[in-house]
Design goal:
Layout (H helix, E strand, L loop, with lengths): L23 E2 L21 E6 L5 E4 H6 L3 E8 L4 E12 H7 L9 E6 L4 E5 H4 L5 E6 L2 E2 L9 E3 L12 E7 L6 H4 L18
Parallel strand pairs: 1-5, 2-11
Antiparallel strand pairs: 2-3, 4-5, 5-8, 6-7, 6-11, 8-9, 8-10
The structure holds the ligand Nc1nc2c(c(=O)[nH]1)N[C@H]1C(S)=C(S)[C@@H](COP(=O)(O)O)O[C@H]1N2 and molybdenum atom.
Length: about 200
Amino acid sequence: MDVTRGFTGRRRAAPDPRLPPGQYDAGADWPVLTAEVTPDLPTSTWTLGVSGLVATPTTWTWNEAHALPSSTYEGDIHCVTTWSKLGMAFTGVSVDTLLEAAGGPLLTATHVLATSHTGYTTNLPLADVTGGRAWVAWEVDGAPLPVAHGGPARLLVPHLYFWKSAKWVADLRLLDHDEPGFWEQNGYHDRGDPWTEQRYQGD
Ligand SMILES: Nc1nc2c(c(=O)[nH]1)N[C@H]1C(S)=C(S)[C@@H](COP(=O)(O)O)O[C@H]1N2
Ligand SMILES: [Mo]
């Protein structure tokens, strides 16, 4: 400890503007938060579906999903338990591309319920998964997504708290109403905007 400099010698660094209120930079750590048993999902039998209120409900195999145009998100993620990770790179297929390949949402579609191969669910307004803001991601920082982090593929909605990013995502179902998912039924906020700290119901 540098005692001789005393209390005038140090300044607290300005907070990183990429950190939403109440969040800290986890640095090299990437905590694993999983409510269920981690599944084993071989890519040979993995599927991804877009169902409900789309013109052509569609299911893709691993190879079919990879034949769609891919894209990369470079940026930050924010968990409601207050850690954030800055400057990540996730690659996969955008939800826009999936919806387009499924013929597009019907006019009545307003919300999406994401369901994982494990049964985990989370709900989102359709507007939060369109416009280049959501992906089904299978790579992180240039490597296959580790199974603990949702591999072989997870939903990624990085502008909302990370519980919306369903690991091991299996299906995106378009609905004409909102349907609370797992954490939303257990007191978490319906939308989860980190910049306005929508952590819990009533925030
Ligand atoms: N299937 C599934 N997806 C999930 C969760 C989960 O428990 N199961 N936890 C959510 C929460 S609360 C967070 S913060 C992130 C954690 O992702 P990570 O374990 O890759 O950090 O996944 C989200 N997606
Ligand atoms: Mo979380």
